[in-house]
Amino acid sequence: MTLISFVVPAHRVQGYLRECLDSLLGQPFGDIEVVGVDDASPDAVGDILDEYAARDPRVRPVRLTENVGLGPARNVGLDRAVGEYVWFLDGDDWLAPDCLPEVADRLRATRPDVLVVDHVRVHWTDTATRSAMAEVFPEPPGAATFRLADRPEALHLLHTAWNRLVRRKFLTDLGLRFAPGWYEDVSFSYPVLLAAERIGVLDRVCVNYRQRRAGAITRTRGDRHFEVFAQWHRVFRFLDARPDLAALRPAVFERMVWHYLTVLGNGERIAPELRPAFFAQITADYRRYLPPGGVAAPDGVEGLKHRLVAAGRWRTFSALRGVNQARATARGAARRALPVARRAARSTRDAVLREYYRAELRRPIEETLAVYAAYWYRGYACNPAAVDAAARRLAPHVRGVWIVRRDRVDTLPPGTEYVVAGTRAYYRALARARWLVNNVNFPDFVRKRPGSVHVQTHHGTPVKVMGLDQQRYPLGAVGMDFAGLLRRVDRWDFSVTSNSFSTQMWDRAYPASYTTLEVGYPRNDRLVTATAEEVREVRDRLGVAPGERVVLYAPTHREHLPRYRPPFDPRRLLDVLGPAGRLLIRSHYFQDRQGRARRRTRGRVVDVSDHPSVEDLYLAADVLVTDYSSAMFDYAVLDRPIVVYAPDREAYALARGVYFDVTAEPPGAVALTFDELLEVFRSGAETAAEAERARSRFRDRFCALDDGHAAERVVRRVFLDEPG
């Protein structure tokens, strides 16, 4: 029999589900199954489960035709589980590495009905908060099992389903199921502990409990938080049916009141207008379930809260909360006052322009003005340029204005309206525009005013980790202001993505309430629609002779090693390519471009780092060589050979972090050393059948939406307000 069945319910967690599944399947312990339940999720959850099931027979996906909620979805998984123990792990949480062997050893050694494991809360700031395990059990609990009557303090462990493994036969014999509604853990976890004859505690951190910035129930206001009362009523009905557990009633009552006050005290859950009614229900349950003989109230402020609840004194309770909030506000104001001196040091010119910007914010929005920018004002490029071109055709009422640096003005297409960054016109355009479209973020001072629409187009499918995920890789996050990043992300109304994978990664890297437009990449429309004649013209402009075979080498930037260059000898590669070979080399836009010549040619080696259009280079190239760059996703649209050259893959993944291993799921042939790269071309492996199959799989996964109409879809949704 399988030892552990993981039941993983999943709804709207596409950005986190891969990390969850990887943490289970990558453990050094294989006697498991994973029952993944797609709770009619509107995103890619079901596809992700199917993808993992195709690779690993331990994964058993279940797709529900309607959304039933977390509790019933767990019941579906429980009904299909075959393991001796069941572990209900939420799809946005993940296991600590290498914890499973120790869990398995404890299960086999003690055969508990319930084994509670430790956890940490992992916040979106990449900080972690320990659980109450050490406070509940000041002395290590050891391996011995116990009944709750012997150690009632175990009730103070977090009452979730995911921090405990339950023996499946014990659970089915008990007839316990998850109830529908919010706070479903309550009416499951407490009865499990109450009924268990053998409870074990493993004081090792096994679960990373994700504290999501957006989308979590615990951070959602609404009247559904009143459902907590029905869950606790179920707990007391269970107690009423078990007279043998009467001695535990005071301890359970104390946890009920604590939980109610915790929910009420969270301003992100109960709106002010609902708080009196919520408090009244607490009072009603306090009186209803108070054990005969009463209970001893806690000390201090908590005891005062208990007495106010028992007496139904909402006004006094509310006033007490107001005093505490006022104290917290005063402390926060003191902290915010500290940077005032630093802000006062801004230059006079900057202060004047910022004041001008604030004045412009008070003027009406220009209803037809769209402001575009790309790559920190480097010019007319990427997705914003493609969207602008489509808008001129489909929404001619929109006036497009580009922001550029002064030294990049001459790179703009003729007739392009623009403002120079840092000028009065620049600040006026940012303040008055109805639409702001960028492939990176606008500066921190930009305010999201009512009626304006911010569109984040991004500029690549992510291989390397991005956004908040960079916090786990300090070498890749040097100088990052993550709090500022989140403020910028909160301005987004739309996030344009090229494929489902990008959508999933942006969900976790940039958690906020924007609308995702999963429509393909506008900049790739040109690659789809380019004619053979256009390709010939591009090659002619680049000086490529008919019959030459062009290899484009485009490595990405190493933020953690800014001076690093992958081993690469152009002459040796050209020797292998032969006399018809031509090599184009393009650095990342972070590297080597400031002050360099427009183009440096050394025979058949051409430095094209300063070429204004990377799409031109893609069209001209017969083969792309790259490493961890998003270039491979765009170039794959052309269905031409791609070679992954990744000589530092392990170091890069460790220091910078990657979302997936491009050498394991490549778009073509793979080389890990320069000699291997030479051999790829010497042997013809870049065009061999195996490389063709790999590219086909890659295109199916990442390029399905690139049909030449992505920019049109963005324009129709954003500028014309047509439904998606």
Automatic annotation (TrEMBL):
Keywords: Cell membrane, Membrane, Teichoic acid biosynthesis, Transferase. It is a peripheral membrane protein. GO terms for biological process: teichoic acid biosynthetic process. It comes from the Bacteria. The keyword Transferase applies. GO terms for molecular function: CDP-glycerol glycerophosphotransferase activity. GO terms for cellular component: plasma membrane. It holds the Pfam family Glycos_transf_2. Gene3D superfamilies: 3.40.50.11820, 3.40.50.12580, Spore Coat Polysaccharide Biosynthesis Protein SpsA, Chain A. It is found in: Cell membrane. Residues 5-171 form the Glycosyltransferase 2-like domain. InterPro entries: Glycerophosphate_synth, Glyco_trans_2-like, Nucleotide-diphossugar_trans, TagF_C, TagF_N, Teichoic_Acid_Biosynth. Belongs to the CDP-glycerol glycerophosphotransferase family. This is CDP-glycerol:poly(Glycerophosphate) glycerophosphotransferase. It comes from Micromonospora coxensis. The lineage of its organism: Bacteria, Bacillati, Actinomycetota, Actinomycetes, Micromonosporales.
